[in-house]
Each structure stands twice: as structure tokens, then as C-alpha cells.
Amino acid sequence: MIYMENKIALSSLAMDLKRIALWLHRKSYSMADRFLNEAMKRKNEVNTNDLLPYMKAIIERVGSLSDRDNIHKAEDALMYSTRIQNYVLYK
After folding, report:
1. Cα separation of the two ends of the chain
2. Cα(33)–Cα(38) distance, rounded to whole angstroms?
3. How much is the pLDDT for 2?
4. What is the pLDDT of residue 74?
5. In angstroms, what is the C-alpha Rg of the chain?
């Protein structure tokens, strides 16, 4: 069961990740970096004790997005966004 605080934090994280992917696709790297910073803040708000193991792994991988090149960063951000969004909707 996802508690309301975690649900809000996860949903916000999913939206920030989607925005990263969209801004990178539009080649607006400064906006993508801004939302990457927001995503890192949201990541720290998530209580990982309540999550399933695969979701904990995804949340940990979000932290390494800044180390990737822009193409892989956009792909990973979109994938993580979708997986987090599905987790929130169906758990």
C-alpha cells in the first residue's frame, strides 16, 4: 500500500522525469537541468521503506541520470517516469 505522502512524491517525481525527457527532446538543456534538480529533490522526499524492491532500484537509478549523455538521459527519464506512474496507479 502506498501512503498518501509517498503517492504525491512519486507522482511528482514521475512528472519531473517526463518533463526532463520532453525538454531534452526539444533540445532545451537548461530547462531539462532545472527539472533534473527538481527530480533529485523529489527523489529525496520518497520513503523507500514502503516500496517494492524493483521500485527502490528505480528510485536509486534516478540519482544517476545526471551522469548520462542527453540521449540516454531522455530515454531513461521517460522509462522511469512511466514505470513510477504505473506503480502509483496500480499499487
Report:
1. 6
2. 9
3. 66
4. 96
5. 12
